[in-house]
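Hi R.,

Here's the input for the iron/sulfur cluster complex you asked about:
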Amino acid sequence: MLLRHTTEKEIDRKALTINPVKTCQPIGAMYAALGVHRCLPHSHGSQGCCSYHRSMLTRHFKEPILSSTSSFSEGASVFGGSSNLISAIDTIFTVYDPDVIAVHTTCLSETIGDDMAQIISKAKEEEKIPKNKTVIYCNTPSYIGTHITGYSNQLSAFVNFFSISTPKKRNVVNLVAGWMEPSDMREIKRISRIMEARTILFPDMSDVLDTPLNGKFEMYPSGGATIQEITAIGDSKFTIGLGAYSTENACVKLENKCKVRFEIVEIPIGLKATDRFVISLSRHANVPIPDILTEERGRLVDLIADNSKYFYKKRVALFGDPDTLIPLIEFLLTLDMKPVYVVTGTAGNHFNRSMQELLSEKVSEAKYKSGECADMFQLHQWIKQKSVDLLIGNTYGKYIARDENIPFVRFGFPVTDRPGNNYFPHVGYVGASNLVIKILEKILDHKDRTCHESKVEFQM
Ligand code: SF4
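And here is the predicted structure with iron/sulfur cluster in place:
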């Protein structure tokens, strides 16, 4: 019993969160910045913050995460980190030669009140920023928001600093990627390619955090949206944001700045969310839906139909980020499963509204909670009160799964104890098929392992 102190009985807690379903804002900013070609994320704070953020990303992606830090000492903590950042900018451009330094703040620099715009303009005045190079920033105090807020703030900063509207409009659709895996971004690009839609995907972590091992170290891998592409999004004819929490602010900023209209759809996880994405892309890029996608959809429907008996009425508990939970829960309902408990550490009305719409009729006993007080301790308490057939979430869920002997599907960020999560897409019809197989394997393995031996079947 790893979590032996979790009790079935709930008591009202207002000032205590146990095992929160979220992490630091700067982790999101760092991850988003890695999706821009030749961009180096820079953490304006202590070395400890930067090391933690890098190690979380490294553990998940199994790749070295490159990021620099202002390396605050006692002096900077008291008097501000201006001189640290200016000398960091000088050193970074001299030694590491990125095209862009994307600075994000931390709790410490925000508490001191460092004025980022003023520090960066001072660095410019002192000629520490070479011609054709850029330093941008976003504010990511971790005592508010979550890693998703940080991701969203970093995307808004890219739009703010780079997008330009010129009289020359282009027949291109911007795809603003919510927090998803590099494999998902690769799949989004594949779908766009086979639809022959002209798109700009940003950020794009494929070929950055899933590069092949070729024996050569590349400080800046070939992937990532280029600065030219992000500049050009201001001339595109439409923007599709994938995931409201991660992308809506950036889409609004682009519309206000460059008059590019937008639509927010869910990250295309599952059948219906993928349908909506494909239809939206087809409409706005003015391209037909090709047979190859219809066939992929048909194979997914066949897979679901063949295995529906294993999904029917299975009770599922989930935790994670709202942009992935909302379409995932919709997909579980498509599979005739019952998402009974859902928690996310990222607050927001959209999540609560979506849960209400999705669950109130179909799963009347469902409990869900979002925000700071929504934690895994409470999720575990709900499971203790009435158990579930499946748990879905990041690696932190393994302790609950083990204690309660529940099949566990690893999904979300971070997954630190199993490889492959960032290799097989979960978006699109192909990704949904991967997800169905992943869920089925866990449920059937558990059945084989725990059922009475007279019930062990060769053919299932
Ligand atoms: S001090 Fe703030 S930014 Fe740094 S690791 Fe802690 S919560 Fe994150």
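One thing worth noting: Residues 24, 26, 45, 49, 52, 106-107, 142 surround iron/sulfur cluster (CB under 6 Å).

Cheers,
M.
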